Amino acid sequence: MDECDINILNLLQSNSRITMSDIGHQVNLSIPAVSDRLKKLESTGIIDRYTAILNSTLMKKNLTAIMFISLAQPKYNIKFTEFVMAEDEILECNYLAGDYDFALKIVTEGTATLENLLNKIKSIQGVQKTKTIVVLSTIKNNYSVKPGTCV
Description:
Blueprint: H1 3-14, H2 20-27, H3 31-43, E1 63-71, H4 77-86, E2 90-95, E3 102-108, H5 111-122, E4 127-135
Antiparallel strand pairs: 1-3, 1-4, 2-3
Helix pairs in contact: 2-3
């Protein structure tokens, strides 16, 4: 990956709907050259996917919470992760080292729906302990890593 690829990635992160023509103008490449670079970035997995990011408030999802989960034993991980994968309000799930096994990022309508989800989670076999933190405001929310700079 060179400086030109990094510039292309930065442009795509700012606006994934940017045309190849506009990319080409900004990085001084022809449309076929931009297309070739994008295909290479996609085929190597550097570009994982293209997606639309929805405004949670406009989608009536006004509450964000971080929930920590501790399971009694690792043998319960599979059932727990299957539950997580099926729940649309759980946007992110991270397996942790330390006092808790998992951290969930939850975006939901409000406290009633958060309570409902919490009760479902507590009902899963093996869930030993939970800790829920309500997010008051989000200062920074990047959806992907920055490509960095070339050396």
